[in-house]
Amino acid sequence: MTTPSASTPPRPAPGTPMRIGLVGAGPWARMTHAPALAGHPGVELSGVWGRRPEAADALAAAHGTEAYTGDEGIDALLAVSDAVAFAVPPDIQAPLAARAAAAGCHLLMDKPVATTVAGAREVAEAAERAQVASVVFCTLRFAAGTARWIAEQAAAGGWFTARAQWIGALYAPGTNNEFAASAWRREKGALWDVGPHALSVLIPVLGDVTEVVAARGPADTTHLLLRHTSGASSTVTLALDAPVGAVGTDVEFRGEHGTAALPPGFDDALGGFRAAVAALVEAARTGVAHPCDVRFGLRLTELLAQAEAGLGPVPARS
């Protein structure tokens, strides 16, 4: 626990709503972040900032708060907020989060924190200097059923190996998924978009990763072979551009106690984000860091960058 100093952001008193500003006004912000923040009893949605003024205006109006845009708008939002939640591409998120931390705002970040180690480290160091709380929203670490399951597998121990698969069909004809328009997802592929989900489950159960081997499969598929500090190994398959019939998400641990498989509930993004908001409020008020904080986010970026270094560029989609 950090000892408060003259520069430590004040901790909201129990019973006082935390003012959280939202940076981002796209589909993820509209479907998950804004409704969770606006409906949380311990939070006041202090404003919405967007790169597109019309999107910021519409989302702010839907939730009865102020809209902000542009560089001056960021400063104005930070001035009326105790914390900031981010729903923007990772390499836009990172410098804005460092700026928010420097302004004394706690951080509720999306995964990945950044797609460069330098960008992720900048945020982690800014949060440490400012002594602000941070949470990185890895959905399975916060969705009720999966969060409990991860904790149970970590407590059980004795795992020999594990496998994780995140296979999506984001670009399949006729799917009409709003996230298919995301430029950073098209550029960085499944490794960076769903890779953090897999690692966020495997690491708390098997320990940190000590070795990474990466190989490409069809389209944007990436295969990872990992060795962990516990001595266990794991394999990961990640894809966004698979056929519809191949879609599926599963995680399985095998060890001395038998086999444990990921239960349903991993797709409860709204419930998971509500839990992440509560975790940030708790960390800010107690000064006790959450296990899934920006330092963990930095570690995820380090591992993904290491995997990426062993691969060629994501093949162009035909």
Describe the structure in your own words.
- The protein is of the alpha/beta class and 318 residues long.
- It is built from 10 helices and 12 strands.
- Helix content is 41%, strand content 22%.
- It has a 6-stranded parallel beta sheet, with helices on both faces. A 6-stranded mixed beta sheet has the order 8-9-10-7-11-12.
- Helix 2 (53-62) links the parallel strand 2 and strand 3 (67-68).
- Helix 1 packs across helix 9 (269-286), helix 4 runs parallel beside helix 5 (117-130) and helix 5 (117-130) runs antiparallel to helix 10 (294-309).
- The radius of gyration is 19 Å and the shape is globular.
- The termini are far apart.
Q: How are strands sequenced across the largest beta sheet?
A: 3-2-1-4-5-6
- At the fourth level of CATH, the homologous superfamily of the largest domain is NAD(P)-binding Rossmann-like Domain
Q: Number of domains in the coordinates?
A: 2
Order of helices and strands: EHEHEHEHEHEHEHHEEEEEHH
**What value does the average pLDDT take?**
93
In short:
By secondary structure, this protein is an alpha/beta fold. It has helices at residues 27-38, 53-62, 70-79, 90-102, 117-130, 144-156, 183-193, 195-206, 269-286, 294-309, and strands spanning 18-23, 43-49, 67-68, 83-86, 106-110, 134-137, 159-167, 209-216, 222-228, 233-239, 248-255, 258-261. The strands form 2 sheets. A 6-stranded parallel beta sheet has the order 3-2-1-4-5-6, with helices on both faces. A 6-stranded mixed beta sheet has the order 8-9-10-7-11-12.
